[in-house]
Specification:
Oligomer: single chain
Number of helices: 3
Largest sheet: none
Structural class: mainly alpha
Number of strands: 0
Length: about 70
C-alpha cells in the first residue's frame, strides 16, 4: 500500500523530467520504489556462516511460513 503511494510521487517527478523528451514514465516509478524496498530489506550479512552442522540431513523439515512470506 505504501509503495503505491510512493510510486505516485516518483511518477510525478519522473513525469516532469521525462516530459522534456516526450517520454512516458510507464512502470519505471513502481520498479524504482520496489527496487529500493528490496535493497532496504536485504540482510546485512548475505552469506552467514553456519553455526552448526545438522546431524541427520534426511529428516524432513516443516515449511517455515515466515520465510516464505519474507520471500514474497
Amino acid at each position: 500500500m505504501l509503495n503505491s503511494v510512493r510510486s505516485v510521487f516518483v511518477a510525478s517527478g519522473l513525469g516532469n523530467i521525462l516530459s522534456k523528451w516526450n517520454l512516458p514514465a510507464l512502470t519505471l516509478p513502481f520498479n524504482v520504489v520496489t527496487l529500493l524496498l528490496f535493497v532496504c530489506l536485504m540482510p546485512s550479512d548475505p552469506n552467514p556462516e553456519p553455526t552448526s552442522v545438522p546431524q541427520n540431513e534426511t529428516t524432513l523439515v516443516g515449511i517455515d511460513w515466515g520465510e516464505v512470506s519474507r520471500g514474497f
